[in-house]
Amino acid sequence: MNGGGDAAPIEGDRASDRESGRASDRWRSVRVWPSARDASAREAVIAALFSLGSTGVHEDGDVLVTFFPASAMDEDTLLRSVADADAAARVELGYVDAQEWVQRWPARVALHVVGALTVTPPWLAAGCDPARTVVIDPGMAFGTGDHETTRGALRLLAHVVRPGDVVADLGAGSAVLAIAAAKLGAARVAAIEMDPDAIGNAEANVMRNGVADRVRVIEGFAQMLLPLVAPVRVVTANIISSVVIELLPAIMSALAVGGQAVLSGILRDERAAMLAVLHESGWRVEREDAEGEWWSAIVAR
Amino acid sequence: MAKKAVGFVKLQIPAGRANPAPPVGTALGPQGINIMAFCKEFNARTQSQDGMILPVEVTIFSDKSFTFITKTPPAAVLLKKEAGVEKGSGTPNKQKVGSVTRAQVRKIAELKMPDLNCDTIEAAEAMVAGAARSMGIEVTG
Q1: Neighbour count for residue B48 (Cβ, 10 Å)
Q2: Which of A7, A63, A233, A276 is the most exposed place for a label (fewest CB within 10 A)?
Q3: Which fold has domain A2-98?
Q4: CATH 2.30.30.30, applies to A109-300
Q5: Which one of A82, A240, A245, A269 makes the best mutation probe of the B interface by having the most chain B beta carbons within 10 Å?
Q6: ipTM of the predicted structure?
Q7: What gap in Å lies between CA B13 and CA B4, rounded to an integer?
Q8: Closest CB to A147 among B17, B36, B64
Q9: Per-domain residue ranges for chain A?
Q10: Could you tell me the pTM of the whole model?
């Protein structure tokens, strides 16, 4: 990891690339017009695109649109696979700048007052008390305060974090919860995130909030990294219920005596099932929070 | 009063694995909706079908809120999974690539029923069996 502020220019360029939340790769766009013969040609093309590693297909009218990182796409293999699926399909290849689509939505991000804390994008931060404000630059990472799960976790975190606490934030995204924990008094916070596109944004947010001495962003899988930062007094995990459930045993072993965890990213209609799992695995639910269709909870071992 | 729909986007994404990279970002970004929120909700709602490719239809309203419905995976995808084959046959009449049992056809028909224009499970089974034949997958048993 690059720890110094004296990076060579090329490193600096890359750092600013990451800071703005941009994927550094250029993307190849692939547009396919399947032959109108029948629906099976269309389905075969979609299947071929997925088997080449596509992470999704946009059905834009009759056209099928997908993307591959430029570094990972082999044009010949692609054209051959599509032709195998539908010999009469027309294919158009292009480039797209990764930055283009990310920049469209940040303008809508608002300032949110959540209990004692305020979460805001940088351009609305003027006049906010830095000690109680978490500034998040909206980018390719989850957690701007705009989502109910982030706000639910923040409300609960305020009940949990005590001065001097050691905290682990699993699936940190923008690091919004990790930064909030530091502002609430935590002495040390490990912000663990597996998505490389989110890491740059998380690191920039940590710097921007002046908590780099307390919050460390670590790239990797929570399952593997949590034991390395244990014991911790508090764990936060705003992910999705299946992943939270998978992580429960690791969270339990990582928590110090008297430790607490804030669990979020759980749909309200998953509450009963979640409570059953928690009860079975020896957790006590100390407090619940719900907003919109989302549910969060403080649990203790 | 009902909200006014201003946009409609159709995607196919693996269950539980939506992320803001293209095509999700490129398709939904221009609509002005919160892409991260869509990914979070899609993943939460589809996590039990992890990895299965799901058609999803997103409706965007004038206040930039959105709603989405997921459809069942295409019959071809389900048939390939049941038959354990990578791809269908290019010449389904001559070359068979695998087989599924009647029971497997029924299982797929039951799953697909909500999205098929069929009144009875038998009609849905006939449709699934037809799709199987057209990909060179035999129906046995």
Answers
A1: 10
A2: A276
A3: Alpha-Beta Plaits (3.30.70)
A4: no
A5: A240
A6: 0.81
A7: 26
A8: B36
A9: 2-98, 109-300
A10: 0.80
